[in-house]
Design goal:
Layout lengths: L13 E17 L4 E6 L5 E5 L14 E11 L10 H5 L7 H10 L4 E10 L1
Antiparallel strand pairs: 1-2, 1-4, 2-3, 4-5
Length: about 120
């Protein structure tokens, strides 16, 4: 199960990595902290997505599938990352897939952030 944290992160500590469009299913949403818990329909992996104020969260329904445009960020602070995974966060000129970031989110949820840009019902 994926929990929606009420903590907010400092945006200055993040590095923009990629933009991608994914099919997701929304499993939960928290209007107060503007986050949704989603499952990527291609990998079947759950992950959390931040929802900026300019994206209408009231039009997002739980247990519904969407086509979502997402930005992915990684943390500059990689304390706690295993030595064999440090390169994943430090090398910025390598094309890593959205699947790689979703899988890495399970190992290092505090080092990866997904931000919703746009969402459309399927």
């Amino acid at each position: 199960m994926l929990f929606l944290s009420v903590s907010s992160e400092n945006r200055i500590d993040w590095v923009y990595r990629i933009f991608d469009r994914r099919t997701i299913s929304v499993k939960a949403k928290n209007k107060e902290v503007r986050k949704i818990a989603a499952v990527d329909l291609l990998t079947s992996l759950p992950f959390g997505i931040e929802v900026p104020a300019d994206v209408p969260l009231n039009k997002v329904a739980v247990e519904k599938a969407y086509f979502a445009s997402l930005k992915v960020y990684t943390a500059r602070n990689i304390a706690g990352v295993a030595p064999e995974n440090v390169e994943f966060f430090e090398v910025l000129d390598v094309d890593q897939s959205m699947e790689d970031f979703i899988k890495a989110y399970w190992l290092y949820p505090k080092q990866i952030r997904f931000e919703l840009v746009e969402i459309e019902p399927l």
